[in-house]
Amino acid sequence: MSPAYTAAALPYGALADQIEALLRDPTVVVPPRLVQPLAGGGSLFVMPATDARVAITKLITFVPDNGARGLPAIQGDIVVFDAQDGRRLTVLDGPTVTARRTAAVSLLAARHLAPRTDGPLLIVGAGVQGLAHLEAFHEGLGVREVLVASRSPASADTLVRHAKALGLQARRVDDADAALADCPLVVSATSAQAVALRGLPRSDAFVAAVGAFTPRMVEWAPEVCRQLAHTGTLVVDTRDADHEAGDLLQAGLDVGPLPSLGDVVRGAAGARSGPVFFKSCGWAGWDLAAARCVVDAARHP
């Protein structure tokens, strides 16, 4: 499928619903992903997953400095098979699925965890993930106001124009830390090559931290993460975050005891207090959920 067809097959609300259903499905099996360093400084990710009906393998490359080459940071495909007879069913555009399923995971987490969902929404990082989260939170939560911060004022202005085209109130902010005081919804979606946020979120904030998905990557200052561990609630997307959640690991926190999104969905997480910090690292199960959406739509048009 082309990027446009892949996007059209994955509306954010339906994808979030499918992710929640997947987290309740005992037939889902997701082996650890393989991350192979590349000679140019990037990484090759090999991510298989299966359930009783569908099997997938995601093959993507991540090259963080590809913007300087005029290329996307993430490239690749997701191959979808029938788990019963082994037939290849389709090939999905990898970057499109990655953007939309990551935003849908954040949307699902916000549905369950956000003390307030009315916004305003602060987006830090105006790239592909910033755009996907803007659309997902507008479509899925009804957010009507967004503030955008980026190292690139031009990128921030582009995302602001897109938000206004969707009918939102939107403006660029140059100080993300100061903007935290005005926003109960926060998405950090930077390249995570250096700390981008040093301020504390509001006491009623929900933060989706999606930029850092390896131990060496970081968006939030370690002292902020340690403070949130004492005064707020930390939740991770999956147990893979135990060794991948750069923001939390670089803060010296023990990630293993933290509840996962699956625990939250299944009602196995404890009580929450203070700001909620949801750390998303990625998982092939989210790509499997996207494949399930596409396959179900094809079988039941």
Automatic annotation (TrEMBL):
<dbReference type="InterPro" id="IPR036291">
    <property type="entry name" value="NAD(P)-bd_dom_sf"/>
</dbReference>
<protein>
    <submittedName>
        <fullName>Delta(1)-pyrroline-2-carboxylate reductase family protein</fullName>
    </submittedName>
</protein>
<dbReference type="InterPro" id="IPR003462">
    <property type="entry name" value="ODC_Mu_crystall"/>
</dbReference>
<dbReference type="InterPro" id="IPR023401">
    <property type="entry name" value="ODC_N"/>
</dbReference>
<dbReference type="Pfam" id="PF02423">
    <property type="entry name" value="OCD_Mu_crystall"/>
</dbReference>
